[in-house]
Amino acid sequence: MTKTKKKYYTVWKGHNTGVFESWDDCKAQIKDFKGSQYKSFASFEAAKTAYKAGPKDFIGKSKKFKSELTKEQLKKIGQPNLNSICVDAAVSGNPGKLEYRGVDTRTKKQIFIQGPFEEGTNNIGEFLAIVHGLALLKQKASNKIIYTDSITAISWVKKKNCNTKLKRTEKNKPLFDLVNRALKWLMENNYSTTIVKWETKAWGEIPADFGRK
After folding, report:
1. Which end of the chain is more exposed for a tag (fewer CB within 10 A), N or C?
2. Facing residues of 110 across strands?
């Protein structure tokens, strides 16, 4: 099972301010706080620097992603195919409340969103998001491809097996019911849609990213 990408959260305005190491801790500071200001960062140092600098250069501004790969590596990978949709999932906790969604890669417009579901995992969300996208594209007879940043989810879809270690409970029963529906769809349907790994190191976060994983 792949690990969820670690992020750090800077809170400039909230019940408490500073750098927090989980989305749950960050959410506790901004919940019911009018005018809260916060942002996620990929490293503790970046979050700490942003906290000291203040929100002016970070809030409401989308900083252009700059890849650390070499020109040769970037050339080999190429650019993303914009005739596509991107899917992603977000979980608050492990397991925790799960959401997943799909967006149009070119326009960034949200196409579908599901959740929150209780006691889910990121891998299950990524799996469900891909199958949801497959069913939608087949229904529309679309030739678009699907991007995901989860190798695990791609493997599950190809094997038609949600190989999760998550225990079933009364709370996550609706989620597992959805997993069973997804597996049933995979067993009963053929599809021509290509599923491709999103190259995060070359292109930045996948457009469907919730920004709080």
Report:
1. N
2. 103
| pLDDT of 173 | 95
Proportion of the chain above pLDDT 70, given as a percent = 93
pLDDT below 50 — which residues of the chain? 1-3, 61, 213
Report d(CA 119, CA 175) in Å as an integer.
8
In angstroms, the CA 93 to CA 120 distance is: 9
Q: Are 179 and 162 in contact (CB under 8 A)?
A: yes
Sequential DSSP letters for 84-150: EEEEEEEEEETTEEEEEEEEETTT--EEEEEEEEEEE-HHHHHHHHHHHHHHHHHHTT---EEEES-
What pLDDT does residue 195 have?
97
Query: Nearest 5 degrees, angle CA 188-CA 191-CA 197?
Result: 120
* In the block, residue with structure tokens 């916060």: 38
| Cα gap 99→104, rounded to integer Å | 17
* 117 neighbors 178 (Cβ within 8 angstroms): yes
Reduced to 3 states (helix: H, G, I; strand: E, B; else coil), residue 195 is strand
Q: Calculate ∠ Cα 199-91-175, nearest 5°.
A: 110
CA–CA distance from 99 to each of 75, 115, 193, 210 (Å)?
34, 5, 23, 9
CA 194 to each of CA 14, 112, 158, 188: distance values in angstroms, whole numbers, following the listed order: 43, 19, 11, 18
